[in-house]
Design brief:
8 strands; single chain; ASHA1/2-like_C; 8-stranded antiparallel beta sheet; alpha+beta; SRPBCC domain-containing protein
């Protein structure tokens, strides 16, 4: 439906938005069902997610492990703080590269937008340096590749 947009706000925030031609219920499910996550949340072509543990409820934990099949890989762990089905998810995550990054506080909303859904992700990093490091990783390219895959799936 559309490419994602990424902008920064202040010293520590990253705001990502993307529209999908699907209901908020479908987009939400794709963000919480482990079997669906393993199909689309893969980043660039050639990567896979052999481990996907996701307990999407307040206090629930998640762990995603990616590999490129050539020896490279990384993982993310986190905890859910708030889960409002089909409209809002708040969680904390940390990436292991292999050392853990500082916690990233993430709020994701799913709003009906005409026939589709406007998804907004608001990330709050602990400091400007952490945000700069995250953005320098090229994360937006992996995110958009994943969202293109999600768009085709739902």
């Amino acid at each position: 439906m559309s490419k994602m947009t990424l902008k920064t706000e202040g010293d520590t925030h990253v705001i990502v938005t993307r529209r999908f031609a699907a209901t908020p219920e479908a987009v939400y499910r794709a963000h919480t069902d482990p079997k669906l996550l393993q199909k689309w949340l893969l980043g660039p072509e050639g990567w896979s997610m052999p481990v996907c543990i996701n307990d999407a409820k307040p206090g629930g934990k998640f762990r995603y492990e990616w590999t490129n099949g050539k020896g490279a890989g990384f993982h993310i762990t986190g905890e859910y703080l708030e889960v409002n089905p089909f409209s809002r998810i708040v969680h904390v995550e940390r990436m292991f590269l292999p050392e853990p990054t500082p916690d990233n506080h993430v709020e994701t909303t799913f709003e009906r937008d005409g026939e589709g859904t406007l998804m907004t992700i608001r990330m709050t990093l602990p400091d400007e340096k952490t945000r700069a490091t995250m953005l320098a990783s090229g994360m937006e390219h992996g995110m958009e590749a994943s969202y293109v895959r999600l768009e085709a799936m739902i």
